[in-house]
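Re: that chain you flagged

S.,

Sorry for the slow reply, it's been a week of failed gels. I finally had a moment to sit down with the sequence you sent. For the record, here it is as I used it:
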Amino acid sequence: MRSLYDTQPSPRTILRRDEGLRAPPRWLFWGIILVFLAFVLGTAFAVFGFREILQPAQQQRIIDQLPFMSVLRRPTPAGGVFPTSAAPVDEAEALSLLELPLELPPPTMTTAPIIIVQTAPPTPIPATDTAVPTDISPPTATASPPALPPSPAPPVDFLPASARIDGVLHQQQTWNNCGPATITMALSFHGWRQPQAYAGDILKPNREDKNVSPHELARFVREQSFVEAIVRVGGSLDLLKRLVANGFPTVIETAAMFEGYDWIGHYRVVVAYDDALQLFYFYDSFLGVGTDANGVTESYARVDNDWRAFNRTFIVVYHPEREALLRNILVEHWDETAAAQIAFETAQGEARNNPQDAFAWFNMGSSLVALGRHQEAAAAFDQATSTGRLPWRMMWYQHGAFAAYFAVGRYEDVLTLAAHNQNTAPELEETYYWRGRVYEAQDQSQQAASAYRRALGYNPNYEAARQALDSLSQ
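Prediction finished late last night. Pasting the structure tokens below so you have them in one place:
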């Protein structure tokens, strides 16, 4: 008879049996490794494809559905990274601009009376009951200008405490289409019924173009509609109110920082104001029409602060028959040179109050370029960039520094700014135009022609590049 000891397995046998029970199959082990590697490689390819292959518009469509994908965007120089000038900054020359006198010409006036078309007590602006359409059918080929309505109020010599422009139809912008959508809204007041896509096809043939300038918008109005438009700088809150009170839809160019976005330039249509609440009301192509379609609201102080980043630029869209009235409202601003002088003196005062105010110095430079004083403008731009406080997208929208540095022969600084734009927004046609100007000035005709063609490749309607390219072949 076998003993109990003889019937029990040995410790080694028990260990082998337990190990066999615990150890996973070899194929499962390698399968997990392969799945993990596939996940890592797939993630890396997805990040690469999202950043390097997809266009920004395609990226945004994905982010709209999967917001967490925003972390995969290519890193940008956010936080104030901005190129400084290659030439040494002459701070004394810049500071001398704070005492630079500019003589204003006498204001241009007409005999037309200033007519305030709406008066109201200082109470909140009431909501409208009419829904604001966002889809607008195109007009027939025989569309003609609507008749001007009679003025509902006699001439008065004061601003009402609140006023509103009715008849502006809102457009919710498609991808990267702020400018065309906003100018379409302003035109709708005058009976224009084309959709924003019509304006977009003309103003930005390349849908990735990050900038449509105010002058491009005004030229579109003059060439494509039956009304007129002018662009001026150096506006004021009081002037905006006068335009609203007299029924002139006005577009302003401002800075914006929407949720999830860095600092950008943005157009808005002013539709109302209210002194009691200290608010302006806007139809905004990105944010919509606000509560009860009254308009998106911003405080007077906030509007002025955001507006000054663009030298308080405004576009008035008006019927030709009301030009005399508009002249009276604008007074000195009707003259483009006088408006630039007003803008300079406003920025000059702000720079005196705060010498580290980058926007004030930049606006001084932009105004001086408009006045043809490029050497002084270059000094102002030097001071603006030396503060380290300009948003990194600043040169996407405003190109006065290119003009100033080019005019005084500082070609390296022009190329530095061009490189900055190309690295952050390669679709800006103005960047290639100024690069071409430098090449042409340096007798590098082939490189200049290539740059001009590149600009026209992004925007075939860019007249400055077209003329520059044509001049090379003469």
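What I noticed first: The radius of gyration is 30 Å.

Talk soon,
D.
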